[in-house]
Amino acid sequence: MELTNKTAVVYGAGGAIGGAIASAFAVAGAKVFLAGRKPESLQKVRDIILKNGGSTEFASVDSLDKDAVDNHLDNIIAKEGKIDISVNAIGIFHVQGIPLAELSLEDFNLPITTYINSNFITATAAARHMIEKQSGTILTISTPGALLANGIAGGFGVSCAAVEGLTRQLAGELGPYGIRVLCLRPDAIPEASYAGSHSFEVFSHRAKLLDVSLDELFKRLSGTVLLPNAPTLADVANTAVFLASDKAKALTATVANLSCGSVVG
């Protein structure tokens, strides 16, 4: 299996994308540590992994709390002796559908400060341990909003661009230590919204502002892609497994464009 003998931590593991990635890592042979703010959601993912024969533990960890993240990783190192893979898949409600000129500074800043601070805290915490072992993989998550000039995404598009920039800078700094840093960039995943993701609230609010149904909003979004279908949770999870595996050992500072063609290049 691709990730046999690997130790992974997934932040936001109780969410749809984080849970899918964590489950796929476990199927691929990794010992997966689930981290997030909602123990009940983490427990559901843990139960699925254990039912399928995987190895996992969960802990309530706020990825915006540096001390909490450091302490959690120290506990993982004490148990496993290493951390091979770190994934940040957190999600928060934020405002979309309002032009920037009409958006409050607070609503604009929220996704930017939350996503970039969380990714900085979790990635650098993992990096400090990975440097000692001279190996490791750090995965971040973005969206096509990082590149698109439209979409009325509020501060979210800016936050995605920042996460991709952080990914590249970390890759440059950590490459000499054998640590790879990569980003997954899926477009909107309707399946995730209906599976309990925070994106359900985000897109529902956006649809309400546009006076359309949620299904109609997803239909409009899917009309911007080149392929006939939107990305799925399995697409993201399977790509994450590949990127975290030795099969991708030549890849770093790279964004995996899982947008089904809504952005090209």
From TrEMBL:
Which Gene Ontology MF annotations are present? oxidoreductase activity
Q: Which UniProt keywords apply?
A: Membrane, Oxidoreductase, Transmembrane, Transmembrane helix
A single Pfam family, by name?
adh_short_C2
Q: Where are the transmembrane segments?
A: 12-34
Q: Tell me the protein family, please.
A: Belongs to the short-chain dehydrogenases/reductases (SDR) family.
Under which name does UniProt file this protein?
Answer: Short-chain alcohol dehydrogenase
Q: Which organism is it from?
A: Solitalea canadensis (strain ATCC 29591 / DSM 3403 / JCM 21819 / LMG 8368 / NBRC 15130 / NCIMB 12057 / USAM 9D) (Flexibacter canadensis)
User: What is this organism's lineage?
Assistant: Bacteria, Pseudomonadati, Bacteroidota, Sphingobacteriia, Sphingobacteriales
